[in-house]
Amino acid sequence: MIARLWLLVVMLTAGTRAFSQFNDAKSFVLINALGFQVNREKMTINSNNAWIYGRQGSTLTNNDFNAVVYVDLLKNQQRLYYWGVASFASSYSLNIYHQFQAGAGIGYSIINDSLAELVVSDGFLYETSDLLLPSGKQDNYNTIRNSLRIKYKWIINDLLSFEGTHFWQPSLSDFNDYMIRSNTTLSIKLRKWLNLTTGLTYNKISRTGRENLLINFGLTAETYF
Known about the structure:
Blueprint: E1 2-17, E2 27-39, E3 43-56, E4 59-73, E5 80-91, E6 96-112, E7 116-132, E8 138-156, E9 160-170, E10 178-189, E11 194-205, E12 210-224
Antiparallel strand pairs: 1-2, 1-12, 2-3, 3-4, 4-5, 5-6, 6-7, 7-8, 8-9, 9-10, 10-11, 11-12
């Protein structure tokens, strides 16, 4: 068994939100993230947790929390594998009071070695949410979503690491109700355990009419045991 614990330390972030602009105010966004991974012969477990807090002048722009656990079965043994996920989110910037998703599906590893990875997966999620609609009405609802994911990683000379994870999640009952989640990072190894990391994160929730875009940079510390 190989386990990895990583910590993304507080990051200064440049961020934009599609529904507002503040040109004369000082702004900042802070990100704290903690991740944990366990690799076994037949199963891999990944846990990622992040809190984003931001202000522009005296105006709160971000107070977002996300926690997710992924389980992959047989991914280290064959190209076609099975996955399960459970997640919880709350987001001031996206008008999400709380949101819970859980589901499962299949994935296919097109490339899977120590230097490169390309994976496509698809499955179904049950979602229960408490949202604020554009009309100002609070909305409690449940739905089943299809979840399509593309994930890739490329390591160059054990120095640079480029990776991304992108989700398209439409509701099966209404394709105008969809979610887009996209995260791309570039890391430069400074020490065996320390990386300089920059990233681009984009989220859109059609039901609330909200989206956010964060361009960030900071330090990631890793340890293996």
